[in-house]
Amino acid sequence: MEVLISSRGHASPSRLERACALLRREAPLHWVERPDVRPFWAVTRYADIVSIETRSGQFAAGPRTYLASETSEAVLQRVTGKPQLVRSLTEMDPPDHAVYRAIIQGAFAPPALRELETWLARWAAEIIDRIAACSGPIDFAADVALPFTFRVIGRMLGTPEADDARLARLAQAFVGAEDPQRRLAESPGDTMRMAMLALRDYFEAVVADRLAYPRDDLTSLIARAEPHGAAMPHYELISYFILLVTAGHDTTALALGGGLEALLAAPDQFARLRAEPDLLDSAIEEMLRWTTPVRHFMRTALGDTEVAGQPIREGDALALFFHSANRDESVFESAGAFLIDRSPNPHIAFGRGPHVCMGLQLARMQMRAMFAELLRRTERIERAGRVRRVQSPFMSGVSRLPVRIAFRASFDAAAE
Ligand code: HEM
User: Fold this and answer.
1) Could you give a GO molecular-function term held by this entry (predicted)?
2) 180 lies in which domain range?
3) Quick one: pLDDT band at residue 336, thresholds 50, 70, 90?
4) What pLDDT is stored for residue 416 in this prediction?
5) Which CATH number do you get for residue 226?
6) Atom of ligand 1 at shortest distance to CA of 367?
7) Amino acid 409: pLDDT
8) 190: pLDDT strictly greater than 70
9) Mean of the pLDDT values across residues 340-358?
10) pLDDT tens track for 60-74
């Protein structure tokens, strides 16, 4: 059990998978009591997670939305005076959730995404140009996945590229506060507090600017929104930006890095993708299943109920482990194999139900743009050093992926 809720456990995929397989088999709803963590049910089977996610009248998303130690929770409550650190879409329930979600929905709808698609292809090409100019190995996670994905959300929010690295650092500290390379202070609670206050200060200034000088960006939309007919309360306003800078890049960056790592570990699959690039869309779905960057969200029972025959009491918290669901053998044949032509592939890397990821098509588009460019421009990609993984039970995956890339000579010539 420890492996599932500890930050280190999520940096050891095979140990983690063994633990999840055991739980799925022996104790799919497992009551966890550990020092410094409020008790909760660990839910590891696909069917049970989908059932809980879609019974939204029976399970609430807030206020306990993520696993955190009681020590961290206490630090954060001292800062906010609220039962949770932030209150964004992921923590909201009816009636607020739908009203707040509607504010930015248009930015993720097909017409807006179509407009973005052409720019995304150019942006992917520019990032690859930058690494093509480097001699020697590069770190795909830090040099490609991170700057590529952060600029997408930065562009949507209307923040300048010069701020990307700093904002990404704060966002990553906020969601990976246990990770020694991401933290800003010794304790996770202090790291989250520092990241949150810095993001608050940053977005307070951007919001003030957009209230005075509106632009065609998400920040102006959120700053001027009037959910329930009045300006958004400050806490919810800042929370909205914190959600977007975290959800908007780390997830997709981890899926890109982990996706490439999976291809490198399965050379037959990589060779097939090069030979049959039409398989790219299904390869991307498999990368999403395989990496499942968001490891869990929590729900709280609103009344006495049951899940798969297990009685659940009102007020019980349940942690839904998406990566375990995505390895569930009763849904995915050969679940432990990375197969780029897997079909069907009903993975739940984006969750399900009313909170299903808003950026799911945008994330897919980013992955398609980047991998299409890699396939087009490169002849060979090989590992050039040790992989590092994020140590966090909330968001995890590959944070360092050294690779050596051989670019196509014909493409270089054409580009000159
Ligand atoms: C591979 C990339 C991504 C993955 C794996 C991912 C995964 C998730 C998951 C699991 C949830 C919670 C779903 C649930 O509770 O059922 C979520 C929610 C959300 N995601 Fe993503 N996400 C990704 C990319 C993005 C991007 C690019 C954005 C763009 C800003 C985004 C914005 C959001 C938002 C706003 C929510 C909250 C939705 C709500 O609570 O109503 N995500 N995502």
Assistant:
1) heme binding
2) 2-29+82-415
3) very high
4) 42
5) 1.10.630.10
6) 1
7) 82
8) yes
9) 98
10) 999 999 998 888 888
Q: How much of the chain is in helix, strand and coil states, percent to nearest 5?
A: 55, 15, 30
Which residue has its alpha carbon closest to ligand 1 atom 43? 357
Lookup: tokens for 229: 């007919």
C-alpha 11 – ligand 1 centre gap (Å): 21
What is the domain count for the chain? 1
Residue 91 in any domain: the answer is yes
Ramachandran category for residue 392: left, alpha or beta (phi over 0 → left; psi -120 to 50 → alpha)? beta
Task: Give the H or E element holding residue 166.
Answer: helix 164-175
Question: Sorting pLDDT into bands at 50, 70 and 90, what band is 175?
Answer: confident
Task: Decide whether any atom of ligand 1 lies within 6 Å of the 62 Cβ.
Answer: no
**What pLDDT does residue 411 have?**
61
Mean pLDDT of the chain: 94
In short, whether 41's Cβ falls inside 6 Å of ligand 1 is: no
Q: Which amino acid, residue 168?
A: A
Contact between 68 and 297 under an 8 Å Cβ cutoff? The reply is no
Q: Is residue 77 part of a domain?
A: no
**Residue 75 Cβ contacting ligand 1 at under 6 Å:** no
Show the CA angle centred on residue 257, arms to residues 253 and 262, nearest 5°: 140
- Domain-located, residue 76: no
In a domain, residue 61? The reply is: no
Q: Probe ligand 1: pick from 289, 357, 358, 390, max atoms within 8 Å of CB?
A: 357
Both structure tokens of 339? 């197969």
User: What per-residue confidence (pLDDT) applies to 81?
Assistant: 83
pLDDT bracket for residue 7 (50, 70, 90): confident
State the Cα–Cα distance between residues 195 and 399, nearest whole angstrom. 19
DSSP state of 393: S
The string of pLDDT tens digits covering residues 265-300 is: 999 999 999 999 999 999 999 999 999 999 999 999
Q: Which residues contact 337 (CB under 8 A, 6 or more apart)?
A: none
Q: What distance in angstroms lies between residue 159's CA and the mean position of ligand 1's atoms? A: 20
Instruction: Give the bridge partners for 59, in sequence order.
Output: 301
Tell me, using a 6 A CB cutoff, whether residue 196 lines ligand 1: no
pLDDT at 414 > cutoff 70: no
Contact predicate 282/295, CB 8 Å: no
